[in-house]
Amino acid sequence: MSEKRTEISEIGEFGLIDRLHQKIKIQHESSLKGIGDDAAVIDAGDHVKVVTTDLLLEGVHFDLSYAPLPHVGFKAVAVNVSDVAAMNAIAKQITVSIAITNRFSVEAVEALYAGINAACEHFGVDLVGGDTTSSRSGLVISVTAIGEAQKEQLSYRSGAKENDIICVTGDLGGAFVGLQVLEREKQVFLANPNMQPELEKYQIVTARQLRPDARMDIVHELREIGVVPTSMMDISDGLASELFHICKASGVGVTIYEDKLPIDKQTFDTAVELNMDPITCVLNGGEDYELIFTISQEDYKKLEKHPDIHFIGYVNKEADGKHLVTKSGTAVALKAQGWKHF
Ligand SMILES: [Mg+2]
């Protein structure tokens, strides 16, 4: 008797998550939201907790030939804080677990933790636990972040409504372009170790890849001005891919405008230099860890003048589809490529 074998690449990462998700039974009323958003939501009586976790593997998620250990530590915390921010919650605690090989010295592990501690200070979170174990193949880091909010302050992927305005923070595409620069310099170095990498002129994009920020600042600001996004995600897999998630969860379509997409000058110039289309980098480049969210029309006035929030389009009926309006005014179907881990 032969057992059926399905390759993970056939169904993809999200297909795999969907398939595993179907077999999970929720047993507690306090488990308000399980798999399917940026973080899980747990009822804690007078407030809710959000919990999210990420696993980072050397050689898959980071390359120590160009990523300094303190940056790897910082990024491991930032990507989890970003998922807490994506729920419109405030990050409070993290746990950090690592697996290391004997290739790492005590000083190297301390360098990693220097970055973790810097991130804790930057984001205002406490490191409250974790585990350390040995690994046979490279460095593994797993961070779990816990955040808090009032129930009514949370923003899920599923709340976007027709006519809502789509907002993104910061600028996009930089982390992806930065990764291409780092990979190129690595190849140059491998071919000729006497060549020193020329990274001076790429500082913004390489920093976006190596040491991304998380937009916890935006969550605090939204609290202060009294805006609760109708839906929200962080941009880890690329803008187009995240928009598809919001559309699917909310049962809506979207229209976004090419000329409204925020791109940094260095990102644009470097993409052109590398023969890449800057708009493709903005739409499909991942790891920017900015926020994408939707707001109701009446909240627009409160955010209109914000220097770091960009209004890129609006939510429409599901039946009207997902479109990108190009600079020449043509509406083209939006495609989600995102990151493929398998
Ligand atoms: Mg996320």
UniProtKB/TrEMBL annotation:
It is an enzyme of class 2 (transferase). It comes from the Bacteria. One of its GO terms (biological process) is thiamine biosynthetic process. Substrate binds at H61, E287, W339. Pathway: Cofactor biosynthesis; thiamine diphosphate biosynthesis; thiamine diphosphate from thiamine phosphate: step 1/1. Mg(2+) 4 binds at D38, T52, D83. Residues 164-320 form the PurM-like C-terminal domain. Mg(2+) 2 binds at D54, D83. Mg(2+) 1 binds at T53, D54, D131. The keyword Magnesium applies. GO terms for molecular function: ATP binding; magnesium ion binding; thiamine-phosphate kinase activity. Residues 36-148 form the PurM-like N-terminal domain. It catalyses: thiamine phosphate + ATP = thiamine diphosphate + ADP. Mg(2+) 3 binds at D38, D83, D234. Reaction mechanism of ThiL seems to utilize a direct, inline transfer of the gamma-phosphate of ATP to TMP rather than a phosphorylated enzyme intermediate. Catalyzes the ATP-dependent phosphorylation of thiamine-monophosphate (TMP) to form thiamine-pyrophosphate (TPP), the active form of vitamin B1. PANTHER family: THIAMINE-MONOPHOSPHATE KINASE. This is Thiamine-monophosphate kinase. It comes from Indibacter alkaliphilus (strain CCUG 57479 / KCTC 22604 / LW1).
